[in-house]
Specification:
The protein is an alpha+beta fold and about 325 residues long. It has two domains: about 100 residues, no CATH class; about 180 residues, Immunoglobulin-like, CATH 2.60.40. About 30% of the residues lie in helices and about 35% in strands. It is built from seven helices and 13 strands. A six-stranded mixed sheet has the order 4-7-2-1-9-12, with no helix packed on it. A four-stranded antiparallel sheet has the order 8-13-10-11, with no helix packed on it. Strand 1 and strand 2 form a beta hairpin. Helix 1 runs antiparallel to helix 2. The radius of gyration is 21 Å and the shape is globular.
């Protein structure tokens, strides 16, 4: 009968073989994720090792890199990738080569299936890069000090099939002292005009600085609390974004950088613009194929569909619909 150590050796050999395969063929985010898993390091330890190499990268950025939600592009980020090769005991230039060979116009092979109409992988990467810049302008750290206990969103689709706007209610708990704001992000549909969008602080918050980027359709806004939270405090706040600046909307997607509490999404349609069918879906990252598809019945009375995630995981979840 084989000993436990023999099983461990076989498992290690399999992991090493899989890592070698993805280091040769990519894509970058899969190789990075496999390398981190092979070393058995949590992202906080990876960040610590990077800081010892004189490179500052947030845990959120590392998470996005290994999900495929973002690719390292800036000089500091590329320095981090070279340091990761050393930290993770990888051959020199192995990760950098995968980045250099990546086709930004299409992303990794096979990801086009199920991609939202009008929004390419390249545009999603561009939006992620712009978002990082806008968050930096608002001096937003990777860890905002808040853990989400509940997040409920209501999205309204208008008579022209456009995304009229959305309302969000958050229930959060602070995990450090002094937290007094939340930074909200809205990514409009293709062709939208962020300069015409407006933000409304509805409950227990007020609007602070707002940043917009026309080409990517991204709006980033500070919501300032009426109190400074201490570690362990819970807080509830509500805000809305009025949009209505793009053409026909076909889906609404929410991304999560880390695991959290409950998430509920409701899509309400104008009575003169009802879709023929609706479905929910999940996606590990913009670069990954979609899964978890499930048809959703449209309520005759309320003209709406919804989904509830009792406990969200890192990745994306959304509702899509067909007009004809």
């Amino acid at each position: 009968m084989p000993h436990a150590t023999q099983h461990a050796d076989v498992a290690d050999d399999v992991v090493a073989a899989e890592l070698d395969t993805v280091l040769r063929g990519g894509p970058f985010h899969v190789a990075l994720r496999a390398a981190i898993a092979a070393r058995g390091l949590p992202l906080q330890r990876v960040q610590h090792h990077l800081s010892r190499h004189g490179v500052k990268v947030g845990v959120t950025s590392l998470s996005y890199w290994q999900q495929g939600a973002r690719r390292p592009q800036r000089p500091e980020s590329l320095r981090a990738v070279r340091a990761l090769e050393e930290i993770l005991h990888l051959p020199e230039e192995s990760l950098i080569r995968l980045l250099a060979n990546a086709d930004d116009s299409d992303g990794p092979a096979g990801i086009g299936q199920g991609r939202p109409a009008g929004r390419s992988y390249r545009s999603l990467l561009a939006a992620s890069d712009i978002l990082e810049q806008l968050l930096a302008e608002l001096e937003c750290p990777p860890d905002d000090g808040l853990h989400t206990l509940g997040h409920h969103e209501r999205v309204c689709i208008g008579a022209r099939r456009e995304l009229l706007g959305r309302e969000s209610q958050h229930i959060v708990r602070a995990h450090r002292d002094g937290v007094d704001r939340f930074v909200a992000v809205h990514h409009g549909d293709p062709g939208c005009a962020p300069e015409r969008m407006t933000l409304q602080a509805l409950e227990n918050c007020r609007a602070g600085r707002i940043r917009r980027h026309h080409d990517t359709g991204v709006l980033v806004a500070e919501l300032l609390f009426d109190t400074r939270l201490r570690a362990g405090d819970t807080f509830l706040f509500r805000y809305a974004v009025e949009d209505g600046t793009a053409e026909a909307s076909r889906e609404y997607v929410r991304g999560f950088g880390a695991a959290g509490g409950q998430y509920a999404l409701q899509i309400r349609f104008d009575e003169n613009a009802l879709p023929v069918r609706c479905h929910r879906f999940t996606q590990h990252s913009p670069a990954a194929p979609r899964g978890g598809r499930q048809e959703l019945p449209l309520s005759d009375r309320h003209r709406s569909v919804h989904l509830v995630e009792p406990r969200v995981r890192s990745g994306m979840v959304g509702i899509g619909w067909d007009w004809e």
